[in-house]
Amino acid sequence: MFSLSLLFTFILLNSNLLISVSGGHDGHGHDHGGHDHHGHGHGGHDHGHGHDYDYCRRSSETVTACEGSILRLSCPGSKIRILAANYGRTDRKTCIKNRPPHQIRKTNCRSSSSLSIVSSWCDGRQSCNVPATNSVFSDPCYGTYKYLRVKYCCTRRRS
């Protein structure tokens, strides 16, 4: 299902792919949909990093880390390209375990700086660890339990 060069720790749970995250949380960063088959990333931009690496090797992946945990990305032998990111909440299904209803009610919560922050931490690197915290992204919706969702790919060398 995944290339052997992508050394991620995935857990198969209820037919949803979850990336393992560290922190005091249960790791239930549900990414309803798992593998994203739509974004093949054949655009030529590289966010100013890695001019020899332009195109995504395979389809992009979307991964999620609950607030207070760390999102870990890795592309051994390749480089990370961040395609999209949001720290906030856009549904009532992700990162909900042991959370009271008032903490998951708001679903139009987005940190406008998410993409630039995650890109600055990860673009062009082989691996990166991004804390899903208010101290990194600020707090786009006080009182709401948030998560960091990132769409990325591992690039291949330009041919």
Automatic annotation (TrEMBL):
GO terms for molecular function: carbohydrate binding. Gene3D superfamilies: 2.60.120.740. Pfam families: SUEL_Lectin. The keyword Transmembrane helix does not apply. Residues 65-155 form the SUEL-type lectin domain. PROSITE patterns: SUEL_LECTIN. Residues 1-23 form the signal peptide. InterPro entries: Lectin_gal-bd_dom, Lectin_gal-bd_sf. Transmembrane segments: none annotated. The keyword Signal applies. Keywords: Hemagglutinin, Lectin, Repeat, Signal. PANTHER family: PROTEIN EVA-1. This is Uncharacterized protein LOC795554 precursor. The lineage of its organism: Eukaryota, Metazoa, Chordata, Craniata, Vertebrata. The gene is si:ch211-226h8.14.
